[in-house]
Write a structure and sequence with these properties.
The protein is an alpha/beta fold and about 325 residues long. Strand 5, helix 4 and strand 6 form a beta-alpha-beta unit. The longest helix has 19 residues. The radius of gyration is 19 Å and the shape is globular. The N and C termini lie far apart (about 40 Å).
């Protein structure tokens, strides 16, 4: 057994402690699993079918296990987090079912983690903020009046109240829209890179010329594991570090150059999103989120680095080619 190393705060969490990732099939959850494996930690990846497909190699490390669970079933959630030291809550219902399914899902996970005596790390977004000229910080008021923004704020408040009550230890990480290997169902995901690699018009939500923070999945995952293994993070809300900001026009140009194709930037307007939503259910929920792309949407993570030290984010000239290489091979 690896002993505790020195008196550093992260030494409170042994490498043999069990880290459970709920929603491990998604972009954020899968990236966290891969980061934990890379750090040599014990990992349980929880998905509905028990096949997260995390490891590229046919033989995952002995410290890794797939686990099947329906996270809407309280008993299955309790079994999934049994024995955990840290639980990463990356699960979310389909966009179209958020209002009905997210609150009971959140409540079931809180209850199960509290019973297990584990720490709960919640992977949140920036949806509760109004965009504007000033960078978004942890002190920015959660004033978004969209359905998803107000719901995200409500869920986060519920988690923090549980922490204040002493029932469960909670830490909340907030990240902007992400991209990267295995980043499929996201704004800069499969549809974006498929059209880019095919040399077709590459659509960007809203304006092509507004600065927008994009989180690179491996960086995002590394930040969440820091939050999971540093006790001083508990009870707080933390914006995760990211490169940028970048405009859509700049990102598409950089991606086209990395892919060796011509750049064909195009706007995916509210009207277009609404139309395509008739055929693609996920897109039906995007029109109310376009405000984040039509104005500056820039996240400030300086508080994170002040608390946990310098964080080396992956520059776009490395992150974009790595992402393109993955999409070329797998999609």
């Amino acid at each position: 057994m690896e002993g505790r190393q020195g008196n550093s705060p992260e030494a409170l969490y042994e490498r043999e402690d069990l880290h459970v990732v709920l929603g491990a099939f998604g972009g954020t959850g899968g990236a966290i699993v891969r980061e934990l494996i890379g750090q040599g930690r014990r990992v349980r990846a929880v998905t509905r079918r028990g096949d997260a497909g995390i490891c590229e190699t046919p033989l995952p490390p002995a410290s890794y296990e797939d686990w099947a669970a329906d996270l809407t079933d309280a008993d299955q959630v309790r079994r999934a987090v049994s024995g955990a030291s840290v639980v990463y809550h990356c699960a979310r219902p389909a966009y179209s079912h958020w209002w009905q399914e997210f609150p009971p899902l959140n409540r079931g996970i809180i209850d199960a983690v509290a019973e297990a005596g584990a720490k709960l790390v919640y992977a949140d977004s920036l949806a509760m903020y109004e965009p504007g000229a000033d960078p978004l910080t942890e002190q920015t008021p959660a004033t978004s009046d969209t359905k998803k923004g107000s719901l995200r704020a409500r869920l986060a408040n519920e988690l923090l109240e549980e922490h204040e009550s002493g029932r469960v230890r909670v830490v909340i990480g907030r990240s902007s829209d992400y991209f990267g290997p295995r980043g499929l169902n996201c704004a800069v995901g499969t549809r974006f890179f498929e059209t880019l690699l095919a040399g077709k018009k590459t659509q960007w939500y809203g304006s092509l010329d507004q600065p927008h923070t994009l989180s690179y999945l491996p960086d995002l995952a590394r930040a969440y594991v820091i939050l999971g293994t540093r006790p001083e993070a508990e009870g707080g809300v933390w914006h995760t570090p990211a490169a940028g900001p970048v405009t859509g026009r700049e990102f598409i140009q950089a991606a086209a150059e990395a892919a060796g194709v011509a750049a064909h930037p195009a706007i995916l307007s509210e009207r277009s999103v609404t139309f395509f939503g008739l055929f693609v259910p996920t897109l039906r929920e995007y029109p109310e989120l376009l405000y984040q792309w039509n104005r500056p949407f820039v996240s400030d993570a300086s508080r994170f680095e002040e608390a946990f030290g310098p964080f080396a984010v992956t520059p776009f000239d490395e992150a974009i080619p790595e992402t393109i290489a993955w999409f070329r091979t797998h999609v």
